[in-house]
Amino acid sequence: LTINRDLQEICERALAHAVDSLEAEGGDIVVLNPMSGDVLALASRRPGKAVQSITGVTEPFEPGSTLKPFIAGALLLRKRARAEEVIDTHNGQLKLDRRTITDVHKAASMSLADVIRYSSNIGIVEFGSRLTPREKFETLRDIGFGTATGIPLPGESDGVLYEPAKWSGTSSASVVMGYEVSVTPLQLATAYAALANGGELLQPHIIREIRSPEGNLLYQSKRRVLRRVFPESVAAQVKSFLGAVVDSGTAKKAGLAAYEVAGKSGTARLFETGKGYAGKYTASFVGMFPAEKPQYVVLVKLNAPKHAYYGGEVAAPVSSVVLRTALAARSAALDRSELASFERDLPLTKDTVRAVASTQSDSATAEASPFAAPPPAAEAVPQPNKTFALPYARPASPPDKTLRAVPDVTGLPTRSAVRALHRSGFRVTLTAQRLATQTIPAAGAMLPAGSIVKLQHTP
To answer: Please, which residues have CB within 8 angstroms of residue 458's CB and are 6 or more apart in sequence?
Structure first.
């Protein structure tokens, strides 16, 4: 699979903590490589369910303001607006067809760039009126909405994108604000990947390769461009809008001290069958890391959080946690040599040192302040220099061949069983797919560390 084990674990832990602490009704995290289309992590959580389904591909939702960048891209593509062009935003309140549209960030006027930065509903409706219903529909259709991605997972939803002939009198305004359209988290992350990679919509992959029992390669995924949806210049301009969202807009809590992050927050009223829009919200954030040449697109979605519900307040920080922890992990599908070229030079202040420390490590040493009291005078005596020949190689440690017992994992879920075997020092291979588990050799057998244990499932 394309799934990165460490990154999947990071996302599942971050999602579980967010859902539990916010008492949300569930959530999803998707991480994509926007340059290849590889799905690096796909985490879903619904409280009270022992077995979590992959709701990131099966449950569509109304994306709210995370849809606005694509409308901005359509305007720039058709030369209907410029980034610096200013439009009347009516001091945050606009009556339209017996309906009142409001903004959280109230202003008399905004540029197109600031409409995205501050997520102005009025601004995107006013700018969006320059597009015909057909042009709005085609923009969203071409970015992949309304059609399943084709990823080989069961139950993938197409989402909802109606033809303009089925729109009501208010649909044209609703659509540009991210309503009357439903997308799966994977569809939305794939659409943002097109902005991240310069305008190409890619086929998402979750299977990297298939091999026969003899080891022969039967299938290998390749980068597949479905279509170009934006020219590179337009994608770059929209991406600069998204950088401002994190730098000084609605999603500042998604930022990192050492790297620039781009993204967009979304807060949409949650529609419930039989109740309508009854006061619950979907909070979301889609980010690109690093902003200049993204290696990740990270989508975080939380369903009906109780204590706060703005995407920039609750979903953006979860994205930041995922990124900080991935940077601290040994292997999380990051090209660290390339990341080094995008690391920011920061002035040495207490705040920046603490922020960089938390970005680079979750260990206790990362929390130590460089502004602590000076060492005792005896410590200040100059020490002799030490010279190391480069490249310096650590002395090889002899392999651990200690015999240890195979733990009893009977009845555990697969992931818990694998973790228990790894902690005991064994490597693991899987032989089937059920829920109850047992090992070969059986529990209690004494094997050298590093031995392969087969994990098989029995009904």
So the answer is: 434, 436, 437, 438
State the DSSP string of 402-415: -EEEPP--TT--HH
Report the alpha-carbon angle 10-16-17, nearest 5.
90
| Residue ranges with strand state E in 112-235 | 160-161, 181-182, 200-202, 209-211, 217-220, 225-228
The two structure tokens encoding residue 276: 């309508």
Q: Give the least confident one: 89-98, 310-319, 363-372.
A: 363-372
Distance CA 185, CA 56 (A): 5
| Among the listed residues 323, 322, 282, 278, the one whose alpha carbon sits nearest the alpha carbon of residue 301 | 282
Residue 340 CB contacts under 8 Å (≥ 6 apart), including other chains? none
Omega prior to 448 cis, within 30 of 0? no
- Quickly state the pLDDT bin for 364 (edges 50, 70, 90): very low
Q: Which residues contact 131 (CB under 8 A, 6 or more apart)?
A: 71, 74, 75, 78, 80, 139
- SS3 state at 161: strand
Q: From CA 457, how far away is CA 459, in angstroms rounded?
A: 7
| pLDDT tens-digit readout, 161-202 | 999 999 999 999 999 999 999 999 999 999 999 999 999 999
DSSP summary character for residue 205: B
Mean pLDDT of 50-76: 93
pLDDT (average), residues 55-63: 96
Place of tokens 């690096």: 40
